Task: inverse folding
């Protein structure tokens, strides 16, 4: 992905953080779920920092927008969720 640093677990990409450009703005990054577990999707839909508008509900790329330092804790949480989900998919 041009302008991003991609993060992988084994051979599965789970996140991309901006290096030279952002997807929507310079303070957002993207996470990949294939698919996002239903409980996590419900949480994502109630989090205004996450864009859940994808072609297939709960599947694909989701953006997370940071607006303050206090969002870092939540950003780490979502990065960890994407990391863990990629391991479950790779194990199959």
Result:
């Amino acid at each position: 992905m041009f302008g991003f640093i991609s993060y992988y677990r084994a051979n599965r990409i789970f996140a991309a953080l901006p290096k030279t450009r952002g997807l929507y703005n310079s303070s957002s990054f993207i996470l990949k779920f294939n698919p996002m577990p239903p409980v996590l999707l419900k949480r994502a839909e109630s989090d205004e920092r996450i864009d859940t508008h994808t072609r297939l509900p709960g599947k694909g790329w989701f953006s997370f927008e940071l607006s303050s330092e206090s969002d870092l804790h939540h950003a780490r949480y979502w990065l960890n969720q994407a990391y863990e989900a990629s391991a479950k998919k790779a194990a199959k």
